[in-house]
Amino acid sequence: MSERPTGLLPGAVPLGLARTGIELKEFFRLRETVVFTFSFPVILLFVFGSVFDDDLAPGVSFTQYFTAGMIASGIVLSSFQTLAIGIAIERDDGTLKRLRGTPMPPVAYFLGKIGLVLVTSVVQTAVLLLLGTLMMGLDLPSTPGLWLRFTWIFLLGTASGTVLGIAYSSLARSSKTAAAVVSPVVILLQFISGVFFVFTDLPSWMQAIGSVFPLRWLSQGMRSVFLPEDFAAAEAGGSWQLGLTALVLTGWLVAGTLLALKTFRWQRHDAR
Fold first, then answer.
1. Residues 214 and 157: beta-carbon distance below 8 Å
2. What is 15-55 written as a DSSP string?
3. Is 60 helix (H, G, I), strand (E, B) or coil?
4. Does residue 269 belong to any structural domain of this protein?
5. How many H-runs (helices) and E-runs (strands) does the chain carry?
6. Is residue 218 part of a domain?
7. What angle is formed at CA 158 by the lines to CA 153 and CA 164, rounded to 5 degrees?
8. Which of 146, 158, 173, 243 stands the most exposed, by the fewest C-beta atoms within 10 Å?
9. In a domain, 268, yes or no
10. Residue 3 forms part of a structural domain
């Protein structure tokens, strides 16, 4: 990141928490965005669960399978897509430049974004699980071990999506092109990562491409939480591959952090 300070001010964490509050207030003031963010996964779950009501395997409904993918997709939407578009808009309208001119340490700004992603991801997931349970007969994990697995997959997926969103925001040259640069990538990844369709039903070349990106592993990790243990044999690798999932998501977290440090800018492309 350009113009980084050599050290962190002692008040960076409190300022980051304060910045999180500001980010959340701004987010929840956008009622249309709030409604879309929290209702869209539920609507898709209801539509797909109503259309595809057959069991994929004994004790595994399409709703159960699809829910795991929608949780993973929701994490990507709340982290990668939200930040990639939102930061590009803030850069274009001069918000980042003005913030850079204040005494606030830059790390506080990023802590605020992390806090925003965590809160919105948790709320979105909670809404999806609650309504999925009440409306679609979704079965929740039944053991503490599965909830612990859910937690580390959720946090690792959120962290990697956050840094990748910060890094990717630099590709949009203006606020007008931000959605066009980001949204098609997210939609494509959803189709090739086992979100909308059973991953092993996809062509092998599509599976190979999808396996490069974190959403495929995040989706499979969530399936390991919400599907029976014996369904692991039906996965592409013949198991849940939790170690590989952790490795891939960690790799993207490291790569995204390095890219963000290298490419993040506080001003527009045409600024001098």
1. yes
2. HHHHHHHHHHHHHHH-HHHHHHHHHHHHHHHHHHHHH--SE
3. strand
4. no
5. 11, 2
6. yes
7. 125
8. 243
9. no
10. no
Q: Strands (DSSP E) along 46-150, which ranges?
A: 55-57, 60-61
* Domain range enclosing 176: 12-263
Q: What is the pLDDT along the chain (272 residues), one digit of tens a residue?
A: 444 444 445 577 888 899 999 999 998 888 877 887 888 888 888 888 777 777 887 778 888 899 999 999 999 999 999 999 999 999 999 999 998 888 888 899 999 999 999 999 999 999 999 988 988 888 899 899 999 999 999 999 999 999 999 999 999 888 888 889 999 999 999 999 999 888 999 999 999 999 999 999 999 999 999 999 999 998 998 999 999 999 999 999 999 999 999 999 998 766 55
**What domain count does the chain have?**
1
3-state SS assignment for residue 203 = coil
Measured in Å, how far apart are the chain's first and last C-alpha atoms?
16
Query: Looking at the chain, how many residues does it have?
Result: 272
